[in-house]
Amino acid sequence: MKSIPAGYENDLLTMVEILRITYYLYEFKKNRRGTAPIYCKLTTDGAERQQFSTGLYVTPDLWDKDAQCVRGTSEDAVLINRRLQDITIELKGIERRLYEADGNVSLAEIYSIYKHKTVEEHTLCGIFRERLNKMEQLVGKEYSPATLQKFREVFAHVERYIRTSYNMQDIPIRSVDYRFVKQFEEALIVQGLKAITINKIMQRVRQMVTFAFKCNYIQQDPFVEYRPLKERKRLVFLTQEELHKLEHHHFAQKRLETVKNIYLFSVYTGLAYHEAQALQPKHITKGFDGRNWITLVRQKTDREVSVPLLPQAEKLIAWFREFGSTDDYIQPRISNQKVNSYLREIADVVGIDKKLTHHTARKTFATTILLYNDVPIEVVSKLLGHSNISVTQHSYAQVLNKNISNHIGRLEKVLNK
């Protein structure tokens, strides 16, 4: 880019004023939410004219036609006015660079450069779409269908938040700062979502923003100072007495008896719903100790899990073989939604005053079957297929405290003797 000759500064300033930028509200395109798009019109002294949508929306009564900005000092007004200023600066900068290059400036060229730059600018929703497309291509290799679906649900939350809070379809990734992160979290709280759900959503949004940060789309990570919400999780599992009641209750309806046994199978193996449903005869092999073992790879952690089959689980496999399984799978094929629906019915009939879901079977395996029978935490972690023992310790802290108390009680008796 060539330098400006001495004495020509005033000519440059005069030239810059040739490009006139006007913002106006296109009220005829008002949407169902009552907001209308803000358009930018570019004109010169000649006959050239160009207009385009800024992607910003505002209610007509807040638009100041004379000042060409949004009235007020609300967060939305400040954000939209700041973006309009940015557009003006970008357009003036392009005009200046063109003039400095060869002194020839055309409106068509200014708009062409601006439009190309705008297309290349990375946005939060654009990054989500890009990553979701890549994840879709890697389903079955690096991601499970369930994981892809969870990210799609998070993306829906993000899109809804941007529309309702910013009156925009998307925002530049550089606009995602700590304030955006916290206010998005607060919006999820207002919706009534539980802390554990919000933390999962924020965790997945963070993955997208971290991707942008590593790609140098943004200069700072807005999640650096962010801390997840404190979760108050209540560990739900069956006690020995409740498990005994369930095991010894026989249902006349086959669907309830089948779901009861599907549940009990995970109580004695620790398998999650998808793992138990995907279990095939090939996954059961004779181990070094002469026992039958289940060996498979957990979808969630991509780690191999080996679980010895307890006698109760062996009996349930024989029941499945007689009353409903196929040659391809150990268990009958029933959706997780139906299993959980039938489990609520089963709990009412048996008299278990707990919200039973299939996942509580895995919790019962870890607590009532293993920890309460003094199986070491390291072994429990291994059988559950956790990626780290700290995950097990965090999840079952209250049970571990009870075990510690029991051990100390026995120790006191020994010392007293």
From TrEMBL:
Q: Which controlled-vocabulary keywords does the entry list?
A: DNA recombination, DNA-binding
The terms under GO molecular function for this entry are: DNA binding
Tagged with keyword Cell inner membrane: no
SUPFAM superfamilies in the record: DNA breaking-rejoining enzymes
Q: Does the UniProt entry include the keyword DNA-binding?
A: yes
GO process annotations (BP): DNA integration; DNA recombination
Q: Enumerate the CDD domains for this protein.
A: INTN1_C_like
Q: Where are the transmembrane segments?
A: none
Limits of the Tyr recombinase domain: 233-409
The record's section on InterPro entries has:
Arm-DNA-bind_5 (IPR035386), DNA_brk_join_enz (IPR011010), Integrase-like_cat_sf (IPR013762), Integrase_catalytic (IPR002104), Integrase_recombinase_N (IPR010998), SAM-like_dom (IPR025269), Tyrosine_recombinase_XerCD (IPR050090)
The family note in this entry says:
Belongs to the 'phage' integrase family.
Q: What is this protein called?
A: Site-specific recombinase XerD
Instruction: Tell me the organism.
Output: Alistipes shahii WAL 8301
